[in-house]
Amino acid sequence: QQPPLSLQAESQRRRPWPPPPPEQGARPSAGAASRAPPHRRPPPPPPPPPPPASSSAPTAPPSSPPASPTSTGILDGGFLLGSVVMVMEDSDAPHHLLLLRAFMAQGVVHKQPLLFAAPMKEPRSFLGALPAPVASSKEDARQRAMGGGAAGDGRASDEGLRIAWQYRKYFGDERNSNAEHRDNKQEFSHDFDLRKPLERHLLNAQHIECLSTQDVDTLHDLQNRSSAFLSKHQRKEGGNLSAGRIAIQSLCAPQCGYFGKDWDMVSFLRSLKAMVRSSNAVAIITFPYTVLSDSFCKRWQHLADTLLSIKAIPDEDKDLAKLLTGYQDMVGFLHVHKVAQTNSQVPVILEASTFSLKLRKRRSLVLERLNQAPVDGSSGPSSGGSGSCSSSTQGSQLDF
């Protein structure tokens, strides 16, 4: 018989908890096993904290083709879109115009909008000095083949046409057109022939604007024109393939009416940098730093995203001729002081900071690293004779 409910509740109330450990050798009863406290799971770990903000910023904007193909590798891919490039002129030679002309010609060839300002009465006349691109190797070969056919009896040209027709029969016109289109897309940067000007119909395009800064008292007109120009090339999420170019020659030249208004020029540079940063455009500015004071020259350098300087070399420097290879083709040196890095925390480390300005065959501009000439060892001591390391003429156990 079971005890009354009151006695059963009293016995459960008086039962010690936790129950005493079983005696050694005794097996726990089924009731004790059922009365054992359930196994408690460890508390779940706290949720992990949210990941910290990534140290890597968004991808930097794309680059614009620079002055020449060689400067693409030098400047880590070209001029960064939304950046201001400043070139410190050399008072001894106008070599900065080589970079400026190549930069402007690259935009004209690609039919990119261009705004040019210079301290001259007719800045559009400067467009006549822009060089034409050098013909590619395919075009040269085609011209040579056509020239050879015209000089001969025409068999070479007929043979070339027959071979071209045979290839077209196998590959098809569509595949050839796609291949040519793909080749044209890859040629984003050109070499320019400084002896051959651009075609006139390219210079009369509507997307080329020119402005004179000579005898101008203020920079308001240049600032307004730059603002209107950049408003057409705002950066969009969908991607805007049209890239604008602004080229300003000798911004602080004495010919300008605002010469001496240092704070006005610094204010203009700050405003231009802010406008260019949010657009698909690149601005390149050359300035004669010798006419600025040291303090304002430092301010200009800090406002530049990419800072370059040009230094001319004398015509005949025997010491440099012995030290550097290819000295005969050199016209100056290009110093890279700073490279633009937008949306990035990783500094750009260049392989070299000084490059040579060369005129290849006196017609195309080339930027190359400085290469030391091999040392002529003919005047040194003769390497002939004994190969022994010992200075004594007698044999020794240590000779080898």
From TrEMBL:
Keyword check for Cytoplasm: yes
Region annotation (Disordered) ranges: 1-71, 373-400
Pathway: tRNA modification; 5-methoxycarbonylmethyl-2-thiouridine-tRNA biosynthesis
Biased composition (Polar residues): 1-10
Record field: compositional bias (Pro residues): 43-68
Any one Gene Ontology BP term: cellular response to sucrose stimulus
Biased composition, class Low complexity, residue ranges: 25-36, 388-400
Name the UniProt record assigns to this protein: Elongator complex protein 4
